[in-house]
Amino acid sequence: MAAILLAGGAGYIGSHTAVELLNAGYAVIVADNYANSSPEAIRRVEEITGKQVKLYEADIRDDKKLLEIFRENQIDAVIHFAGLKAVGESVAKPVMYYRNNIDTTLSLLEAMQETGVKNIIFSSSATVYGEENSVPYTEEMKRGVCTNPYGWTKAMTEQIFEDAAKADPSLSVVLLRYFNPIGAHPSGRIGEDPRGIPNNLMPYVTQVAVGKRECLTIFGHDYPTKDGTCTRDYIHVVDLAKGHVKAVDYVLRHNGTEIFNLGTGTPYSVKEIVESFERVNAIKLNHVYGNRRLGDLAEFYANADKAERLLGWKTEKTLDDMCRDAWNWQKQNPDGYRKSN
Ligand code: NAD
Ligand code: UDP
């Protein structure tokens, strides 16, 4: 049974990936400093799967601690989720973002070098395509000019991994470019738990629905899209998590760097999200149309063919599933992991 270290594994995508890896028979080790998460998420992963996770409270930048984790465990592959991810905050605190997101990467690579671990998967983002490329995005397009420090940390980290794999031909790197993950595990036991006012659309929608926020503002309705609101490639977090299981199978069998888009290939508009959410959950969502948000692209979505071809993965869940599961999580856990059962 291969063992996978999830750096930043207590977070939204990491916890869902832990469930799918455990279900697929992998041993899972999680290291997280809970900068944006809670150990409760991992307790619930164990509850859902009936299997155990080896959990470390650790800052991935703490080289000494990290080396201890690598030495205590026979690690076959690493998944690097550990990063700060709020775009607006990255504009206000760029140094904090570069320090955290780049240093976690360097520490992981050094610990791998020291202990002979050769396989790593990185949580990158569609944001690296920048503004220059046209949709749908394909993996061979050049990285574009990012619009904020968060995006640059993803682009720079991709470069670091590519250079490291070039220098060491025995290294195997998979860069996963996520599109817009939403939804939650169908059990409603794990999900997205943002701190403070959510920046992203779906947590804002669910917090309006549960009465924590008054009204959703739809940012812009004069875009050159099907209904004037922005479109994105929303992907159910469970589909995304299953993509990681396929990526683990792949990274263990190959060398060099491979990039995969993880998206559905189908764009939906903000208006369609609101409509689907209202319909499947039989809820009226208080919303208004407002100004465009600075830096938003009108539309972006994946060409997801490469992942299907090389990983044998494609998404299975629908937009309705995403909206139903997001609400199921929010209504069972109105305060996220903090005050719920
Ligand atoms: P998240 O914030 O829920 O998870 C990130 C985890 O990393 C958190 O548990 C946090 O506590 C941990 N972490 C951060 N810095 C750390 C450090 N120095 N040491 C140890 N742990 C640390 O975010 P997520 O949505 O699960 O995203 C996971 C990864 O995927 C991130 O790198 C993110 O940038 C990337 N990503 C996310 C999205 C998205 O929309 N959610 C899209 C594209 C890429
Ligand atoms: N959005 C919105 N209101 C909100 C939050 C987001 O209309 O309160 C829109 C935003 O303009 C974008 C889409 O929803 O078109 C997805 O935004 P999110 O921040 O979730 O993802 P990203 O813009 O990073 O793709």
Give the CA-based shape. Answer: globular
Quaternary form: single chain
Number of helices: 11
The radius of gyration is 19 Å
Average pLDDT: 97
The count of β-strands is 14
Q: What small molecules are bound in this structure?
A: nicotinamide-adenine-dinucleotide, uridine-5'-diphosphate
Main beta sheet, described? 7 strands, parallel
Give the low-confidence spans.
none
What does this structure look like?
41% of the residues lie in helices and 18% in strands. By secondary structure, it is an alpha/beta fold. Strands 3-2-1-4-5-6-11 form a 7-stranded parallel sheet, with helices on both faces. Helix 1 links the parallel strand 1 (3-7) and strand 2. Helix 5 packs parallel to helix 6 and helix 7 (201-209) crosses helix 11. The longest helix has 22 residues, at 94-115. The model has no long low-confidence stretch (mean pLDDT 97). Residues 180, 199-201, 204, 216-219, 230, 232, 270, 293, 296 line the site of uridine-5'-diphosphate. Nicotinamide-adenine-dinucleotide binds next to helix 1, helix 5 and strand 5.
